[in-house]
Specification:
With 464 residues, this protein is of the alpha/beta class. The protein contains twelve helices and 18 strands. It has helices at residues 16-25, 75-81, 85-91, 98-111, 188-192, 204-215, 251-258, 262-271, 273-276, 281-293, 395-398, 408-420, and strands spanning 9-12, 33-36, 115-116, 120-127, 132-138, 144-149, 151-154, 158-160, 178-180, 196-200, 226-230, 303-306, 309-317, 320-327, 332-338, 340-343, 347-349, 387-390. The protein has a five-stranded parallel β-sheet with strand order 3-2-1-7-18. Helix 6 (204-215) links the parallel strand 10 (196-200) and strand 11. The two termini are 25 Å apart.
């Protein structure tokens, strides 16, 4: 394809969500698509691909099945391609190993002709003369390429979040001793040999790091690192995994959530932390079992667990680090000394630098976030005739399902239908038993807002 002939669709970033879109778009007649990523090959959270860890969603939440179970890019077809159907059947797995999910995605990414790696996008601008977005990307050999696209989908992922007191300690001299859990596997051996490791964060990643460190202790709990687990949450709590509770990860809930007032949406996301920041019950059980084993014969586990605790300050010392912590319920402070720190403190969406070349053509909200409508279109200036979509940067507008793999294929299908201007893949109108919000037909008080079900589901700002 000539660089001057616009693609119908260009995706920036090839994580699971844009990879899902690439897989569903593969073979759509007349659709010219390209997906770009700076990495040399697909990789998914490599620092947390620990043995024994699994996805927190069933294998059906693969790249395509929830939108198109007949697709050749399904997880089951991946198994078939590797002659592993019988072993998988006999294993009776519903939650597959995280390492296998990464391998499955790499299998798809290496075979999808629209996916191009070693392609770092440096600029996205609006070319009014061409009536398309102009994207510039650079390869590791210095080659620069310019392509045009009528529609662009951002799937650049999220960045690790580190608590403010730890940020000054991320300098090179602390490398391997103060890190985000995203880099845990890289420094795993050194951390296992440390005297004392403090893990901060109550989510799944924090729990898995804690479990791994405790397992590096010997049977009597004498060798291996003393492991300390700190978290702001009031408890080390299991993720909400009831069948009705999981209906928060449905299109029904998204439609309801989108039309709530902004301040209420933000409050609800904070309150719903167990839907997306909790720990699997199996992992919590495994931690308890490991600690219990170490009490046999009168032993004591070399571990401390501190919920309700916030990191207030951190400083380097001659032999490690001094952490000042605040226990919120008691409104009291205490200090701990530790040899190393792992911040399992999550990820957040970022505004990519390459969008700077769009200038003021993106209609940001008052907090600098995308305004996203029901079809995942970003609100743009009316001068832009093209369409910009976003994946996994819309929790503030669409709710807790934004980063969850469960909705990945459904969202990709929704975007694909919008890109093509027709129904390529049908998406369900109703997927939950729960009625979120007031039922239709219930009389509303005078002056009450229009029920979400009666509003147009695809308007926000001035999307194009």
């Amino acid at each position: 394809m000539s660089a001057q002939t616009p693609y119908d669709l260009v995706g920036v970033g090839i994580g699971p969500f844009n990879l899902s879109l690439a897989a569903l778009a593969d073979g759509v007649p007349g659709l010219n698509a390209l997906f770009l990523d700076a990495k040399p090959a697909f990789s998914w959270h490599p620092g947390l691909l620990l043995e024994g860890t699994t996805l927190q969603v069933p294998f059906l939440a693969d790249l395509v099945t929830m939108a198109d179970p007949t697709s050749p890019w399904s997880y089951l077809n991946y198994l078939r391609s590797h002659d592993r159907m019988f072993p998988f059947f006999f294993s009776e797995r519903f939650l597959i190993p995280r390492r296998e999910y990464d391998h499955y995605c790499r299998w798809a990414a290496e075979r999808l002709p629209s996916c191009r790696f070693d392609a770092r996008v440096t600029a996205v601008a609006w070319d009014a003369g061409a009536g398309a977005f102009a994207l510039t990307y650079r390869s590791s050999d210095g080659t620069t390429t310019r392509v045009l696209a009528r529609q662009v989908v951002l799937g650049v992922g999220t960045d690790p979040v580190v608590p403010a007191p730890l940020r000054p300690l991320l300098a090179d001299e602390h490398r391997g001793r103060v890190l985000h859990s995203a880099d845990y596997r890289t420094h795993r051996a050194a951390l296992a040999a440390a005297d004392d490791v403090t893990v901060i964060g109550a989510g799944q990643s924090g729990a898995e790091v804690v479990l791994d460190l405790i397992r590096h202790q010997d049977g009597q709990g004498l060798g291996g690192p003393f492991t300390r687990w700190l978290a702001r949450t009031p408890a080390f709590a299991p993720m909400e995994y009831s069948k009705i509770g999981l209906e928060h990860f449905t299109p029904d809930y998204i439609r309801y959530f989108r039309h709530l007032p902004e301040d209420r949406r933000e409050q609800m996301v904070r309150e719903q932390w167990q839907l997306y920041k909790g720990v699997s019950a199996d992992t919590l059980g495994a931690i308890h079992d490991e600690l219990y084993e170490r009490t046999i014969g009168g032993g004591r586990p070399r571990a401390d667990l501190h919920p309700g605790t916030e990191l207030v300050a951190a400083e380097a010392t001659a032999d490690g680090y001094l952490l000042t912590c605040r226990h919120a319920p008691q409104d009291s402070e205490f200090t701990v000394r530790t040899s190393a720190i792992v911040a399992a403190t999550g990820y957040s969406a970022r505004r990519p630098a390459f969008l700077d070349t769009l200038g003021d053509l993106v209609d940001w909200d008052d907090k600098g976030r995308y305004r996203v409508d029901g079809r995942y279109r970003v609100a743009l200036d009316p001068r832009v005739d093209g369409t910009l979509y976003v994946q996994n940067a819309e929790m503030h507008t669409h709710g807790v399902g934004a980063p969850d793999l469960t909705l990945g294929a459904w969202r990709a299908a929704t975007i694909l239908n919008a890109v093509c201007g027709r129904t390529v893949l049908p998406v369900p109108d109703r997927a939950a038993w729960t009625t979120f919000g007031a039922p239709q037909g219930t009389p509303a008080p005078a002056g009450a807002p229009t029920p979400a079900a009666e509003r147009r589901p695809d308007t926000v700002g001035t999307p194009r």
